[in-house]
Amino acid sequence: MALTPSAMLPLGTPLPDAALPDPNNQNWRLSESLGEKGLLVMFICNHCPFVVHLAPFFETLYDRLDRLGFKVVAINSNDVEAYPADAPDKMSEFAAQYRLPFPYLFDESQAVAKSFKAACTPDFFLFDGQGKLGYRGQLDASRPGNEVPVTGEDLLAAAELLAQGKLPPEASQKPSQGCSIKWKGQ
């Protein structure tokens, strides 16, 4: 597995809008998913060991963000022909296994991942209540095998600031790291 960092979309970038289906073919529009304080958009997939490492924390992450006024959506943009473990039916299994309390959407065309400049799984983008990017980067410093506990401290500290109407310092934002998004034709 090749370690790929986030591309670090510029802060202040407006939320790219799109409608994507979940595995049950219910469509979700990103702009309509914005909470009072904002929206976390996570690019994940089912098979990446970096995502699997963090997945047990996703329910806690959702609860903490929900209390702050943020909504959460996850998006899988991988090429499912080349990586069938990431197909929508497997997304449903993943969501059930990790009790994901938020929509897990499928970006079959990969256009949404490209509009975010998403590069890896996991890749995190936290938008404020006006739909402006306030944080992008890692959840925390935990990685498979590094013995650092998963706490969500980097992303949650940014969410606390955004909930108070303050911008998280750019210097504190470190790229996420994980598996590359599996682009079609590569």
Structure description:
The strands form 3 sheets. A 5-stranded mixed β-sheet has the order 6-5-4-8-9. Strands 1-10-7 form a 3-stranded antiparallel β-sheet. It has 5 helices and 10 strands, in the order ββββααβαβαβββαβ. By secondary structure, the chain is of the alpha+beta class. It has one domain: Glutaredoxin (3-Layer(aba) Sandwich), CATH 3.40.30. β8 and β9 (133-137) form a beta hairpin.
Mean pLDDT: 95
**What is the global morphology?**
globular
Spans of at least 5 consecutive residues whose pLDDT stays below 50 are: none
Instruction: Supply the CATH superfamily name.
Output: Glutaredoxin
For the secondary structure, the number of strands is: 10
* Tally of discrete structural domains: 1
End-to-end Cα distance, whole Å, is 15 Å
CATH-assigned fold name: Glutaredoxin
What's the gist of this structure?
The chain is of the alpha+beta class.
Key phrases:
10 strands; 5 helices; alpha+beta; Glutaredoxin; single chain; 186 residues; 23% strand; five-stranded mixed sheet
